[in-house]
Write a sequence for this structure.
């Protein structure tokens, strides 16, 4: 069951304060990087809802991330400005519909077959956009303008401003986290955590488990779509790479590194992954090689990911042997 | 005689060439403790799995309260008021005792598609979960992780979870399996109390327990029903002695 200790909550609040105070010291490059990592944090949390809390290992989660970005790109193609009040619902609506269709087929399978079918659907979308010359083919498309929050001539929040956008993303991250927490403690969250732990038993107790898995899949897909929407707005470009298996693999790695089934872990994972990659690019010709070594080291020595680090340190200090091989507490 | 709660008509289950259950026609009366005994491989657990919807029958029909439930999914059968416990302990090991019973109790809400209000505010679910914990004798263990309890306690929890779903008919697959004699005595007492308000279908190898609790006994051999009768009838049946009880004595 989802539990957070007081210590964890305090650490998280501390990190939030740091994130909120940071922008004036970041400069443009790091401001953009941190913005991007917060977006990836939302994306990774949405996958954690599936992997860590429903027991559904999706290897095609980027499909929803990229699809939402493409919808934004298509809607902004022939227009200079568009109101976010209908663009965002359109992006989320299409993503929710896509996750309903893909999920409807996928939750009928389990284990390795679920991994393969989600991957197959994502690759179908990848090739659809990759071969579609009207949408820029493999180069993707530029998004020249961001949708605006303006009502008439009054614009409360200017999304074109880097600083402002940073805070919009930060607030999105906080709301996504709190919303998912709420969800996990609600009746629905209790059922999906039962499914993750023991699906047969959950069904025997009288829950139509497939329906709950499908709804979880839709929620996770839509949240990934929200992250994709922010990402496309942020980078002003959307390409097939955003929904390829490489992206799906990266976000899965982020969840595993950060700590499966912890919710905040995947956000920490996104930051660790992102900063390490950024640093390695400066100091070596082969950042991917060292990233690989890092991933192996984390999996071997931190079976509960970065989120499990405080507990692991506490245990080392008490000189007890490390954990029992990875199941979250 | 009153209307039967559950009936099976020529129920059968075939696994490839193996006839695990064949031509089983039984009636289970309300309020009765009906034990099913038989040697290993007689098809007892398969029969329970057919009744609970975990297996699809190859032949025959199942009626519960007059309604045809053949081929229904386990969750729908559970919602009709049929609870079951499993032969191999089947609980949520990373949940506390209370959380195990909580989820079971929550299944009786009209819907758990509720996404915002904290589940712990549902007072009716809490009352049911705590009641089930008390009844199965784990009231003191409410915040212990299920994985950290003794095997016998886990078996008790298994029954507690079933009770939290407020069933009318209990399908119990070897509730005493692997228990020490002290724990077994405790669970036999629990089953006796449950029998006062529920209908029980009980698979059990412990003959003393069966003779102590059961009103009716059905003997199965090789997937078929050999005989159904009262405890006395079964004890004294020459056929049963030969097919089942006798064999065990020879082995000893």
């Amino acid at each position: 069951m989802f539990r957070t200790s007081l210590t964890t909550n305090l650490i998280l609040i501390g990190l939030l304060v740091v994130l909120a105070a940071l922008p004036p010291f970041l400069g443009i490059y790091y401001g953009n990087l941190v913005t991007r990592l917060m977006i990836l944090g939302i994306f990774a949390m949405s996958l954690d809802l599936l992997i860590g809390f429903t027991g559904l290992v999706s290897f095609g989660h980027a499909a929803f991330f990229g699809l939402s970005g493409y919808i934004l790109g298509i809607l902004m193609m022939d227009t200079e400005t568009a109101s976010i009040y209908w663009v965002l619902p359109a992006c989320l609506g299409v993503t929710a519909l896509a996750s309903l269709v893909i999920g409807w087929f996928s939750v009928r399978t389990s284990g390795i077959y679920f991994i393969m079918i989600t991957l197959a659907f994502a690759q179908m979308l990848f090739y659809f956009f990759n071969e579609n010359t009207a949408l820029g083919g493999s180069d993707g498309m530029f998004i020249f303008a961001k949708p605006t929050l303006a009502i008439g001539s009054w614009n409360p929040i200017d999304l074109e401003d880097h600083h402002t956008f940073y805070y919009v993303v930060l607030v999105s991250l906080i709301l996504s986290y709190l919303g998912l927490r709420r969800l996990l403690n609600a009746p629905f969250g209790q059922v999906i955590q039962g499914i993750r732990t023991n699906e047969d038993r959950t069904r025997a107790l009288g829950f139509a488990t497939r329906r709950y898995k499908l709804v979880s899949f839709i929620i996770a897909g839509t949240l990934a779509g929200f992250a994709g929407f922010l990402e496309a707005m942020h980078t002003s470009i959307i390409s097939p790479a955003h929904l390829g298996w490489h992206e799906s693999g990266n976000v899965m790695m982020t969840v595993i590194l950060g700590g499966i089934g912890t919710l905040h872990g995947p956000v920490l994972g996104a930051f660790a992954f992102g900063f390490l990659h950024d640093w390695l690019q400066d100091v070596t010709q082969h950042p991917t090689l060292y990233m690989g070594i890092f991933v192996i080291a984390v999996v071997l020595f931190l079976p509960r990911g970065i989120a499990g680090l405080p507990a692991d340190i506490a245990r080392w200090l008490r000189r007890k042997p490390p954990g029992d091989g990875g199941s979250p507490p | 005689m009153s209307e039967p709660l559950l009936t099976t008509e020529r129920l059968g289950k075939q696994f490839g060439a193996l006839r695990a259950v064949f031509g089983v026609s039984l009636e289970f009366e309300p309020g009765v403790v009906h034990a099913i005994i038989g040697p290993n491989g007689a098809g007892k657990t398969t029969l329970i799995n057919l009744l609970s919807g975990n297996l699809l029958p190859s032949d025959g029909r199942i009626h519960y309260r007059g309604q045809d439930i053949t081929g229904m999914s386990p969750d729908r059968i559970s919602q009709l008021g049929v609870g079951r416990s499993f032969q191999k302990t089947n609980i949520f090991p990373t949940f506390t005792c209370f959380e195990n019973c909580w989820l079971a109790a929550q299944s009786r809400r009209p819907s758990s598609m509720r996404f915002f209000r904290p589940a712990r505010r549902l007072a009716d679910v809490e009352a049911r979960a705590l009641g089930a914990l008390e009844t199965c004798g784990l009231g003191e263990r409410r915040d212990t992780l299920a994985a950290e309890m003794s095997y016998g306690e886990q078996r008790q929890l298994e029954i507690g979870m079933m009770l939290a779903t407020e069933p009318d008919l209990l399908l119990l697959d070897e509730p005493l399996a692997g228990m020490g004699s002290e724990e077994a005595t405790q669970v036999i007492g629990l089953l006796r109390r449950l029998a006062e308000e529920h209908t029980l279908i009980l698979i059990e190898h412990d003959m003393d327990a069966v003779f102590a609790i059961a009103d009716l006994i059905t003997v199965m051999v090789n997937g078929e029903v050999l005989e159904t009768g009262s405890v006395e009838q079964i004890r004294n049946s020459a056929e049963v002695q030969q097919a089942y009880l006798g064999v065990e004595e020879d082995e000893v």
